[in-house]
Amino acid sequence: MKNSSMFALLPVLIVIVVASNCLYVIREIDRAVLLTFGEVTNVDIQPGLHFKIPGVHDVRRFDGRIQTLDVPTESYLTSEKNYLEVDSFAKWRIGNTAKYYTATSGNEAVADNLLAQRITTGLRNQFGIRTVHEVVSGERDLLMTDLTASLNAIAQDELGIEVVDVRVKKIDLPDNVSESVFDRMTTEREQEAQELRSTGNEIGLGIEADAERQRIVIEAEAYREAERIRGEGDAQAAAIYAEAFNKDPEFYEFTRSLKAYLNTFSDRSDLMLLGPDSEFFRYLKDSQNNNQNNN
User: Order of strands, edge to edge, in the sheet holding 30-36?
Assistant: First the structure.
């Protein structure tokens, strides 16, 4: 009974073993090449389930995702003959599977080592044509852009690797270089601040001049309007006086004389010399004569 069960399971086991050796799965994140008797025959295996012949075919899988390479710290010489300690990293992924397999045998450590050598060479070339100031702040972004472009072209041609990005994490300066760089940056910031102050003062003077001009114009227009209104008022007052005078000239003369008396005798310290027959006291004389006649 036991022997018959084992014989019944034997075909199933054979099928499982054959299937495990003949079938393989490529994931979405994988890149793979198919070897036939050790020679690359398929460099673009699509994700999914595939068939292979044991002993004839061999499949090599690689991680197709973006990888990070931390480049060891290196010393680089600038155009000013100053050494800088640079710590950098790169982002890369497989661009050409066949070339990648041929150049690295599919070994990621070998790929990292070869790529690190090319990054070191590229950084040395880029730093050698730039000053410390340009490397640290002035042209750092341009340096990284140029390095990424040139390194990507070399890596794709030689290693089948696409360089996505190269960045400098840290730059350490020698003490004497640090002091000169900081002094230069301080001087540049002071010059920039002075330029901003000068521009601000110039703009401020322009605003003040414009405000003064507007003030003068507004005052002139207000004075003109005030004079116009005053003229109209004087004209209306003259017309009213003339109309009142024409209605009762005697009363008009009387009120004018009263106002003159008030203005004249408002200050007791004033002294006035007039003849006894002056017209100035005409209404006072008339008042005295009327009082004597009534008595």
Answer: 39-42, 30-36, 57-63
Distance in angstroms (rounded) separating the CA atoms of residues 69 and 81: 28
Q: Is the pLDDT of residue 1 over 50?
A: no
pLDDT band at 58 (very low <50, low <70, confident <90, very high): confident
pLDDT tens by residue, 63-100 = 888 899 998 888 888 887 878 888 889 999 988 888 88
Task: Show the domains of the chain with their CATH numbers.
Answer: 2-63 (no CATH), 67-173 (3.30.479.30), 249-294 (no CATH)
pTM strictly above 0.90: no
Scan for tokens 């710290």, then name that residue: 73
* Dist CA 181 CA 225 (whole Å): 65
Q: In 10 A of CB 195, how many CB atoms?
A: 10
Which token pair is 65? 């995702």
